[in-house]
Amino acid sequence: MRSREHIVRYGLAVLAVVLALLVRWGLDPWLGKLLPFVTIYLAVALIAWRVGPGPASLAAALGYIGATVILGGTRVWFSDQTVGTPVGAFAFAATSGITILLFAAMHRLHLRSTVAGERMRATEERLRVASQAARMFTWETDHQRGTIWWSAGAAEIIGCREDELPNDARLAQFFMWPEDGPRSWQIFHDAVAARVTTFSLEFRSRNGERWFAVHATINYDESGEVRSVLGVTQDITARKTSEMKLAEAGNELRRERERLAVALRVGMLGVYEWRVGDTTIWWSPEVYPVYGVEPATFTPTVEAFSALVHPEDRAEMWRKTEASIADGKEFSHEYRIVKPDGEVRWIANRSHVSLDAAGKVERITGVAADVTEHHRSEAVLRASRDTLRQLVEQSPFGVYVVDADFRLIQVSRGAGKVFQNVRPLLGRDFAEVMRAIWAEPFASEVIARFKHTLTTGESYHSPSTTEHRADTHDVESYDWKIERITLPDSRFGVVCHFYDLSERQRYEQALREADRRNDEFLATLAHELRNPLAPIRSAVQMLRLKPAGDEETRWGRDVIERQVAQMSRLLDDLLDVSRITRRNLPLHLQRIAVADIVANAVETSRPVIEAQRHTLEVEPPDKSLCINGDAVRMSQVLANLLNNAAKYTPRGGQIQLRAAREGDEAVIRIIDNGIGIAPHIMPHIFEMFWQEEPAIERTRGGLGIGLSLVKSLVEKHGGRIEAHSEGRGMGSTFTVRVPALPATDSGTECPPTDTSQHFTDRRRVLVVDDMRDGAEALARLLRHMGHDVSMAFDGEEAIATAERMRPSLVLLDIGMPKMNGYEACKHIRDQDWGKPITIVALTGWGQDEDRRRSVDAGFDLHLVKPVDPAMLARVLAMTAERK
User: Fold this and answer.
1) What count of Cα atoms within 13 Å lies in the side-chain half-sphere of residue 564?
2) Distance in angstroms (rounded) separating the CA atoms of residues 479 and 465
3) How far apart are CA 125 and CA 810, in angstroms?
């Protein structure tokens, strides 16, 4: 590196000489023989000043040689001596030497000045960096002029712009917190008054966010007046913040100590310390009540403490203590003590050992706590866990656990049946177990579910899963749920708890089968009972159409007619209750007038009321009062309530029916002065099959389903029914409330409900029934009404007769030999001549399924025996010839 520097320096000398010679040669036309070395001297001087004496000497020698060679001996440079003579050479050497010495001295001065300047700049830079790093600046005041000088960086440290720094020393306090400015000036004035030369103070910034420290020197003049003040201001915010935090930490430490003391007292915790080898132990005040002794009467020596420890635990307690002393490790243990009063308590002791310079245990410090209640709680908890485990094991549901490695690790006794064919079981891969038990794809679905829950924590619940087993080929059903849990190893696992639904589903299937058979029995019972009622009603109706006979004949006819009607109503109610119980009772909702359903109900119940010689008072509502309801079912509700009033009112009683709008409801009240309802009976009157009198004592008949049916029908209309009675002998009031429809216009009536009987022209009617009495009775009634009637007694005969007579109306029974009514209807409908005929199913089968099959077979209407004469008249009226 140094040789390279020499080459550069001497290279510069050679270059300077060459340039000097070229310049002199270029000036030769003007200078002629004069000053042959003028440019050489300049080059030598320049090299001596900027590079040094060595390169300058080389430049001088090369310059002389070059000038001699290039300019020749004809040039005069000094006096009359020419270049190249000895005198000329000496003169050049002397002049060059003096020049080199002079400019070399200037070179050394330049170097020293440069180094000093660089050192000063470096020192200033270090001071600047140190000031910036220390967040400090200097300032000086001139008290005679009242000015202040600020060092660089002062504005940035203070937190203002450079142009905001004041020149007036008195304005410096405006950078201080309002309370710190006057205080700082007071400190300065006190220092001046005491004639001290230095002072220090601290102040906050104007916004209170930063802290500054000032250290200043006061300069006095000969008269003792202040000439100037030179100071250093440092940003000490970080130090102040640390000091405040340290102070707060100290306060918090004191509070922690106070809280610790309180916690020790409240938690019955005591601190002790024992210097190994000493005979006494230091106890904090909280230790004494833990051991049940008093400080005034008990001295905690090693021997006295050992005597308090339960004899069965004493040796183990000292063994652990000595082991801790031997290996220098902390230890904890629990032992029993016997208090002076004989009470046995559990003590938990945790100790810390302190070692001396030799590494031996010097003292033991620890905490003692009474954990008797904890031991009792643990005992209760263990008993509870054991009880819970026994309950789980003996419960009808199953539980098993899969760990994080997807292995089956626990199976309850209730789950054993599911896994009975898998051996070995515990510790086996869960996927293998599932594929051994269940067929695909269910096995893979279960495995995927468990893995998803194990990974995401998302639980899964299937309330009913029915699948085939792969090992037993049985079909089993389960309600099962899986959840992620944390196992004792702190890893996740999946618990599955399930309930075997197989047996329950078999029971449910048996119950459904029993319900189906019950429905079939009720339908069959209704059918078998309606069949004999049909000819009886037809015969009675035929008798009514004939001229009235004697009083006894009329009485007998009326009795038969009432009992047939009662029997029909009982059958209808029984089937309706069955439908409601199965939630299978449809409503045909439409806008109906309350006045019409009141009229229908009164017409239906009037025979029962008149038979008891009751007085019925009806207050019908305005024709504009309408509801959205089923006209038949609402009429049935009111008729049942009127029949009940007639039944439970002594002969000759009074019954009132009142209907009106109350707010947004249509309200119908049926009031009687009958036997009333006892308070203890009131909660039960709407229960199914409930009756007050024992079966053997009943005098009023009935199945106990009427009011239950009424309540269900009203609720299906969105309404409610209420019963009220003051008690026995005080009569009863039943109130039906149903949502009313808003009136369309003022005075607008609802469309009338068709309740009238229809009288028709002569029709051709075919009556088909395998029960000859029923067919004969209905045929006689129709002939008496003026119609042409033919009869058939099975399906095949019905088809042949219909083809021959081409009737307007066919009244066709369903259950018949040879061919049933459904098949006969389909056959007639398939013929061109049979398409316009009105075909009505007249049967004892009245279930919803029976009506649906009638529609599918092509029937126009489905009527249930015994048919009401008014309905029969309406059917005859609708049998116009089909086109």
Assistant:
1) 23
2) 6
3) 126
96 versus 589: which is more confidently predicted? 589
Alpha carbon distance 853, 826 (integer Å) = 11
**267-377 to CATH, choices 3.30.559.30, 3.40.630.30, 3.40.50.620, 3.30.450.20:** 3.30.450.20
CB 64 within 8 Å of CB 92: yes
* C-alpha dihedral sign at 421, 426, 427, 431: positive
The CATH H-level superfamily of 586-741 is Histidine kinase-like ATPase, C-terminal domain (3.30.565.10)
Closest CA to 183 of 164, 198, 195, 200: 200
Question: Model pTM?
Answer: 0.36
**Could you tell me the two tokens for 104?**
């070399």
Q: What are phi and psi of 366, to 5 degrees?
A: -155, 180
Q: Which of 48-62, 287-301, 622-636 comes out lowest in average pLDDT?
A: 48-62
Read off the pLDDT of each residue in 668-674 and give the average, rounded to a whole number: 93
In 118-210, beta strands by DSSP E: 136-142, 147-150, 198-204
The fold adopted by the segment(s) 395-500 is Beta-Lactamase (3.30.450)
Peptide bond into 866 cis (omega under 30): yes
Please tell me the total number of residues recorded for the chain in this structure: 883
**Residue corresponding to tokens 């009976």:** 681
Each residue's pLDDT tens digit, 38-56 = 777 777 777 777 777 778 7
Q: Per the structure block, which two tokens stand in for 651?
A: 């002969």
The pLDDT score that the predictor gives to residue 604 is: 80
CA distances from 222 to 145, 147, 148, 226, 722 (A): 17, 20, 21, 10, 118
pLDDT in tens, 475-523: 888 888 999 999 888 899 998 888 777 777 777 777 677 666 666 665 6
Tell me, yes or no, if the two domains 135-235 and 586-741 fold the same way: no
d(CA 92, CA 436): 120
Side-chain-side CA neighbours of residue 526 (13 Å): 24
H or E element: which one contains 489?
none
Of residues 140 and 254, more confidence is placed in 140
Listed residue (633, 620, 786) closest to 719, CA to CA: 633
Residue 277 burial class via C-beta count within 10 angstroms: exposed 0-12, middle 13-18, buried 19 and up: exposed
Options 3.40.50.1820, 3.90.1150.10, 3.30.450.20, 2.40.240.10; CATH of 135-235: 3.30.450.20
Whole-angstrom Cα distance, residue 304 to residue 297?
12
840 versus 175: the higher-pLDDT residue is 840
Q: Where are the domains of the chain?
A: 2-112, 135-235, 267-377, 395-500, 501-578+756-883, 586-741
- Give residue 156's pLDDT: 81
pLDDT of 392 higher than 90: no
Q: How far apart are CA 810 and CA 858, in angstroms?
A: 12
DSSP SS3 for 24:
helix
DSSP-derived 3-state class of residue 219:
strand
696/91: higher pLDDT:
91
> Roughly how many angstroms between the first and final C-alpha of the chain, as a whole number?
130
Q: What percent of the chain has pLDDT above 90?
A: 14
Look at residue 458 in the predicted model and tell me its pLDDT.
Answer: 92
Distance CA 875, CA 678 (A): 46
The Cα–Cα gap between 136 and 141 comes to 17
Question: Could you read off the pLDDT of 401-434 as tens digits, one per residue?
Answer: 999 999 988 888 777 778 888 888 888 899 988 8
Query: Which CATH architecture is the domain 501-578+756-883 placed in?
Result: 3-Layer(aba) Sandwich (3.40)
DSSP 403: -
Q: State which H helix or E strand residue 592 sits in.
A: strand 590-593
Q: Is the pLDDT of residue 136 over 90?
A: no
